[in-house]
Amino acid sequence: MTNVTDSFVFLGHWPSAGSFGFNTDILATNLINLSVVIGVLIFFGKRVLSDLLDNRKERILNTIRNSEELREKAIEQLQKARARLRKVEMEADQFRVNGYSEIEREKMNLIHSTYKTLEQLENYKNETIHFEQQRAINQVRQRVFQQALQGALGTLNSCLNNELHLRTINANIGMFGAMKEITD
Predict the structure, then answer these.
(1) The pTM is what?
(2) CA 112 to each of CA 6, 102, 106: distance values in angstroms, whole numbers, following the listed order
(3) Are residues 29 and 23 in contact, defined by beta-carbon separation less than 8 angstroms?
(4) What one-character-per-residue DSSP string does 11-65 give?
(5) What's the CA gap between 128 and 126, in Å, rounded?
(6) How many angstroms separate the CA atoms of 171 and 158, rounded?
(7) What DSSP designation does 92 have?
(8) Phi, psi (5° rounding) for residue 12?
(9) Each residue of 101-156: pLDDT tens digit?
(10) Is there a contact between 168 and 160 (Cβ–Cβ < 8 Å)?
């Protein structure tokens, strides 16, 4: 270790300039070489390293700016999507309400229409019943009239003799003749 400290202490002391030889002290020569290389690197590499760091810094800042812009655009699109969602939900609610009211209106129309149809059927039924009653009454009248007429003819035929029968026929013919003269 004394050699290492001696080489640092005697750095300013060089052997005479006229002699050329090898320095066999490895630590002393390595430190000198390293200090020269580091000095050259610092002197010439400072600008390159600075440019590399500046470029890297600029890329990082651009990436951050782009990320911020993308984030803002994403937030804006999210807000627009939420607004559209609210609008669609309101329209869906409106359609649902309108659909329910339309269903209720159709239901009421159907009930009203069915009520009218039932009322008309009731009227037709009553008219049919009244018509059938009138027809039945007319049939009964006709039968009663026919039976009464047959009964009257039977009574007349049994009560009338030929002479009375001929006088009745002549009287009726006379009445018909008088009617004919009046109408002519």
Answers:
(1) 0.37
(2) 122, 15, 10
(3) yes
(4) TT----TT-------HHHHHHHHHHHHHHHHHHHHHHHHHHHHHHHHHHHHHHHH
(5) 5
(6) 20
(7) H
(8) -75, -15
(9) 888 888 899 999 999 999 999 999 999 999 999 999 999 989 988 888 888 878 77
(10) yes
